[in-house]
Design goal:
heterodimer, A: 48 residues, little secondary structure, flat, B: 459 residues, alpha/beta, 12-stranded mixed β-sheet, 3-stranded antiparallel β-sheet, 15 strands
């Protein structure tokens, strides 16, 4: 594509299939403690 | 839902629901903006007129661009429909009452007297208290008993100042290590400290046992010492800096954050982040102060605009540092687009009050550290478990789709509806929103995505 460069990203719709193991950190635990965000959490799923 | 923005010379298109990110030129940027609202012929005609000064913008070429956009749509990378709402509630129901993280308030007291402290100098609007080993041990047992099949359990030693109860912290870690194999659990400990009592024993133990250490530093000496003072009024900067440096040097690459708070007095907080970097620290976090609108430290609407500019300055400078081989990490810009969290994580909310709870020195349970001291938010205690089921259900219902204001927001799969405590403090309800927080959050995500786009364009 000439005018569009698409970055390699995890497809969120597909992540529904093997997601939800629940092993990841809760959102602001061990870090900022004041402003919740989920997108920067590390995925801990070993079987994705 | 598509979000388009221009930042640092990039035209960025985010397809919120698939997570796809596109780095496009301005012609494609304009075409994507019109794509869902106008017929093809009209779009091409409009763009031919708009870009008539450019030789590369021809009818054939625009047809090709249109076909590219259509193929991205068909492959689920653009204009992806939001089909996640029904999943949001079911996931939390499925995980039952599993608890996987506790914030242990081992000391409701502090050796610093910071007036901006959300925990009222560590006392959480109550009496000073230290957690006994027996209470802490019971809290760890409670966590194991309620963790179901989860292996990774997070425990944060928090306060007040947890080093004021250091012997108990050490004994609790030893106890947890003694049971984790038999219980098939993996404890991950974090210590959050102001640094005043750090000594060689703390450094050795923390670097062996704590997965993460959060070290409170507000940045420049004059900024740090404005609030972070002892009870005689003396600033703590000169005391803690050599201690933090020694601890981090000895940490051997294990996780840590130098974490600061910025207020109305330093909305130009990037200077403080850069100061942290000048001191040799690389893992950095800087957070807006939490407070009431009438507090002198609270960010004003004018400050919010300055802070947004500062986030851009920070992102650009971090790219420069990376190019020069001296990268720094900023907590909110850690956005892994390839291996980040799954959709369940993104829609389920932060976990406070359900899978994450705070424990007071006397064993009461609260939805998170920021609710401690709000009596109506007491969930139960570590002996009888959660007894306020209605409150737990209220927290369980908090997810990315729980707030009307979030419904059409492109960022909801990045914040998952935001911080319940911020919402409560701003609106009186955990189902409300904290609008300035949303604005800052969106700006941070835009900056973080721009950084990935920039890195990608260098490859």
């Amino acid at each position: 594509m000439k005018r569009i460069k698409t970055l390699e990203t995890r497809n969120l719709c597909n992540s529904a299939k093997k997601g939800g193991c629940g092993e990841c950190q809760t959102s602001c635990q061990s870090a900022c403690k004041t402003s919740c965000g989920v997108a920067n959490q590390k995925c801990e799923n070993k079987e994705k | 839902m598509v979000h388009q923005y221009k930042l640092n010379g990039f035209n960025i298109v985010l397809d919120s629901c698939s997570g796809a990110v596109h780095d496009v030129d301005e012609v494609a940027y304009d075409m994507i903006a019109m794509f869902e609202n106008s017929p093809k012929e009209e779009i091409i005609e409009t763009l031919l007129t708009r870009y008539s000064h450019r030789k590369d913008v021809t009818k054939d070429e625009l047809e090709e661009c249109y076909a590219d956009i259509l193929s991205l749509k068909e492959s689920g990378q653009l204009f992806t429909e939001d089909t996640f709402e029904d999943m949001a509630g079911t996931f939390k129901e499925r995980s039952g009452n599993v608890i996987k993280a506790l914030c242990l308030h081992v000391a409701h007291t502090c050796n610093l007297n910071c007036s901006y402290c959300f925990a009222s100098q560590g006392k959480y609007h109550g009496d000073r208290a230290l957690m006994s080993f027996e209470v802490g041990k019971r809290a760890l047992d409670f966590l194991v008993e309620n963790s179901g099949s989860r292996t990774n359990l997070e425990v944060d030693f928090f306060g007040g100042e947890p080093l004021m109860n250091w012997d108990v912290v050490k004994k609790l870690v030893e106890y947890a290590r003694s049971i984790e194999k038999e219980k098939n659990k993996n404890f991950r400990f974090t210590l959050t400290t102001n640094g005043v009592l750090i000594d060689d024993d703390v450094i050795e133990f923390a670097n062996k046992e704590m997965s993460n250490v959060v070290l409170s530093l507000d940045g420049r000496k004059e900024i740090h010492d404005r609030f972070r003072i002892d009870y005689s009024g003396k600033g703590s900067y000169d005391t803690i800096i050599p201690k933090f440096q020694k601890l981090v040097d000895a940490r051997g690459g294990k996780g840590y954050y130098i974490r600061g708070t910025f207020t109305h007095y330093n909305p130009d907080f990037t200077k403080d982040v850069f100061h942290m970097a000048d001191l040799g620290f690389t893992e950095l976090s800087m957070e807006p102060v939490v407070g009431k609108p009438e507090d002198e430290t609270t960010l004003t609407p004018e400050d919010i605009e300055i802070v947004k500019e500062q986030y851009e300055i920070l992102a650009k400078d971090m790219l420069r540092r990376t190019k020069e081989g001296k990268p720094i990490t900023f907590y909110h810009y850690m956005l892994d687009l390839k291996e980040g969290p799954c959709i369940y994580k993104r829609i389920s909310g932060c976990g406070s009050g359900t899978e994450y709870m705070a424990v007071t020195p006397w064993g009461d349970l609260y939805p998170c550290h920021q609710f401690v001291g709000e009596e109506s938010y007491k969930l139960g205690d570590i002996w009888n478990g959660v007894t306020n089921d209605a409150l737990r259900e209220e927290f369980r219902s908090c997810n990315a789709y729980a707030r009307e204001e979030c419904r059409d927001c492109w960022a909801k799969l990045y914040c998952s509806g935001g911080c319940a405590a911020n919402a409560f403090h701003a609106s009186g309800s955990i189902r409300g929103i904290y609008k300035p927080g949303c604005e800052l959050f969106k700006k941070r995500i835009e900056c973080a995505i721009m950084m990935r786009v920039s890195e990608n364009s260098e490859e």
